[in-house]
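STRUCTURE:
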């Protein structure tokens, strides 16, 4: 009978040891699975800083303040000749247009077109080569 009791005790001891090792392995596996997700919490708080660089000569650089047409999409043509002749530029923005940006571009382009028509007539339209947004 005593041997049976000893076997039972050693069996319980092995069972508890196996259970303890199994629980440690499960905890370790859960920790290793949760570790990558904990990094995502901190990744959401990063700030993006955009650095700009001025092109051209720094000394004696002259900033131009000229009227311009606002266009959307990919730049299809170089408008330097038009800019030099009529002192009016063309500024291209990306393809995504909100209601407010669309309204602002139409008002701006109508005002610039009105000014050019008063000064030069309709000749500027042929030289521009595109139909400005909103006209």
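SEQUENCE:
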């Amino acid at each position: 009978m005593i041997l049976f009791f000893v076997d039972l005790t050693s069996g319980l001891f092995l069972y508890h040891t196996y259970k303890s090792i199994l629980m440690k392995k499960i905890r370790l596996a859960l920790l290793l699975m949760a570790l990558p997700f904990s990094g995502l919490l901190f990744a959401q708080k990063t700030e993006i800083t955009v650095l700009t660089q001025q092109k051209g000569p720094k000394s004696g650089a002259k900033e131009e303040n000229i009227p311009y047409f606002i266009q959307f999409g990919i730049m299809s043509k170089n408008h330097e000749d038009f800019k030099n002749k009529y002192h009016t530029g063309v500024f291209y923005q990306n393809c995504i247009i909100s209601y407010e940006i669309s309204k602002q571009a139409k008002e701006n382009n109508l005002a610039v077109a009105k000014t050019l028509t008063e000064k030069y007539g309709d000749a500027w339209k042929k030289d521009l080569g595109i139909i400005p947004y909103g006209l």
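REMARK: The longest strand covers residues 68-72.
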